[in-house]
TrEMBL record:
This is MotA/TolQ/ExbB proton channel family protein. It comes from Vibrio amylolyticus. GO terms for cellular component: plasma membrane. Keywords: Cell membrane, Membrane, Protein transport, Transmembrane, Transmembrane helix, Transport. One of its GO terms (biological process) is protein import. Residues 82-176 form the MotA/TolQ/ExbB proton channel domain. Belongs to the exbB/tolQ family.
Length: 183
């Protein structure tokens, strides 16, 4: 059992070292990109937790309050229902625009990494006076890794954002249908 635990710990350390090596190859911009990705996914996870944990409780309260009302057809009752629907929409769509902005920043940071990497390549060429491929390899790595990482981060973020948006739309429609139904 101790051998298995030691192997797991060793593998975790080696994986961390590989990740750190990858981040160093990509340069400073890759660290910024990683920070944006972490913030993005924190907001995505927050939204998922809200959908699973908090919103069902709020929805239940709104439906119970609506069903307890005797009047469902007056202007006042419809205004109350519309107010609840508006609150629900605001709560459901909270942070989605911020997630969208963070996702849009990812490819821009990747392109910034490309530019800084190419500047590094040209700097090596100017200082060394040659176009030795070995000297340019680190600059090319600095140019390609952030671009790739930015695109991957943006694709995963776009997928998460679109799924969250679709879930918001579906949930909002179900709540509206529940509040429109009579007893």
């Amino acid at each position: 059992m101790a051998n298995v635990l030691a192997n797991i710990q060793l593998n975790a350390v080696l994986d961390f070292m590989d990740l750190f090596s990858f981040m160093e190859q990509g340069g400073q911009v890759l660290w910024w990109l990683a920070a944006v990705v972490v913030v993005t996914w924190l907001f995505v996870v927050e939204r998922v937790i809200y959908f699973v944990w908090s919103f069902p409780k709020e929805k239940k309260q709104w439906i119970e309050a609506w069903q307890q009302r005797n009047d469902h057809a007056s202007w006042h009752a419809l205004a109350i229902r519309d107010g609840w629907l508006s609150e629900a929409k605001q709560a459901l769509y909270q942070h989605l625009n911020f997630i969208k902005v963070l996702v849009a920043i990812c490819p821009m940071l990747g392109l910034l990494g490309t530019v800084t990497g190419m500047i590094s390549v040209f700097d090596v060429m100017a200082n060394q006076g040659s176009s030795d491929p070995k000297l340019m390899a680190s600059g090319i790595s600095l140019a390609t890794l952030p671009t790739m990482a930015g695109m991957v981060a943006a694709l995963s973020g776009v997928f998460a954002h679109s799924r969250l948006t679709k879930a918001c739309q579906r949930t909002q429609l179900k709540l509206e249908q529940s509040l429109r139904s009579q007893r």
